[in-house]
């Protein structure tokens, strides 16, 4: 039976064993064989529904995080167009890293490629259908946005202060907590932030003797910025992340992670 689908294999052996039993036990065994074959076929026909249900259950476990990431990675540009490139990348990443391993483990490996778009659509519905608290309007002015970010860090227990409009050397906010100094550059943009901001805040961390560095934005980050951040250790955060930001010590070194 090499190369056959599991359903065909089950039907084959059910018929073989059921037929043999029928010779010995007659009509009752044949009736049981027919019922078993029908159950196998119904189970097969129900497979697409079970697949969709599995994907929904996985997505719903992460609904709050998905909804927040969807809000953070979608924004209006200066022309009123909705820019969601960052969210589309995030959605695909979630499907690839979180959903696929689980659906493959449940026997749906053959659905991975042909139904990838369907999985993304399910994730989209879950994320868009989750009710988040109303977003707080952020200041439009850059300096006011820096103060706003400092206030959010203060609410999270950081001793945070803006550095001022001039002479900041790429640092807009200095924050300290539990002996960790965080150097922050704030970007209130209408487009994703590029890797120049990552370079600037990495240098600012050296200038200000920072333990960690972060770029905070309302508008997401370009792939180049994300790549450089991974190399330099700079955190790329949405301002929503600041209320849960905490210093963490690990393996003898200081680092900062966004607690969600």
Automatic annotation (TrEMBL):
InterPro entries, sorted: Restrct_endonuc-II-like, Restrct_endonuc_IV_Mrr, tRNA_endonuc-like_dom_sf, Type_IV_Methyl-Rstrct_Enzyme
An example of a Pfam family matching this protein is Mrr_cat
The Swiss-Prot or TrEMBL record annotates one GO molecular function as: restriction endodeoxyribonuclease activity
Q: Which domain of life is it from?
A: Bacteria
Ranges for domain Restriction endonuclease type IV Mrr come to: 143-244
Does the keyword Nuclease belong to this entry?
yes
Q: Which GO terms describe its biological process?
A: DNA restriction-modification system
What keywords are annotated for this sequence in UniProt? Answer: Endonuclease, Hydrolase, Nuclease
Tagged with keyword Ribosomal protein = no
Q: Output this protein's name.
A: Restriction endonuclease
């Amino acid at each position: 039976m090499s190369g056959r689908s599991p359903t065909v294999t089950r039907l084959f052996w059910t018929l073989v064993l059921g037929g043999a039993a029928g010779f010995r036990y007659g009509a009752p065994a044949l009736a049981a064989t027919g019922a078993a074959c029908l159950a196998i076929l119904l189970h097969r026909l129900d497979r697409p529904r079970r697949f969709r249900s599995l994907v929904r259950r996985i997505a719903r476990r992460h609904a709050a995080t998905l909804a927040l990431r969807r809000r953070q990675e979608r924004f209006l540009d200066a022309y009123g167009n909705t820019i969601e490139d960052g969210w589309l990348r995030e959605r695909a990443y979630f499907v690839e890293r979180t959903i696929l391993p689980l659906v493959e483990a449940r026997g749906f490996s053959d659905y991975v490629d042909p139904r990838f778009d369907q999985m993304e659509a399910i994730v989209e519905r879950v994320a868009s259908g989750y009710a988040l608290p109303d977003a707080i309007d952020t200041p439009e002015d850059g300096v006011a946005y820096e103060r706003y970010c400092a206030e959010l860090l203060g609410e999270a227990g950081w001793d945070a202060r803006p550095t001022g409009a001039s002479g900041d050397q790429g640092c807009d906010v200095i924050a300290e907590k539990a002996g960790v100094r965080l150097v922050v550059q704030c970007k209130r943009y209408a487009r994703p932030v590029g890797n120049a901001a990552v370079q600037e805040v990495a240098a600012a961390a050296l200038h200000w003797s920072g333990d960690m560095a972060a770029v905070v934005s309302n508008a997401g980050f370009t792939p180049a910025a994300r790549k450089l951040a991974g190399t330099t250790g700079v955190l790329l955060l949405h301002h929503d992340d600041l209320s849960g930001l905490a210093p963490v010590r690990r393996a003898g070194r200081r680092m900062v992670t966004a607690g969600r």
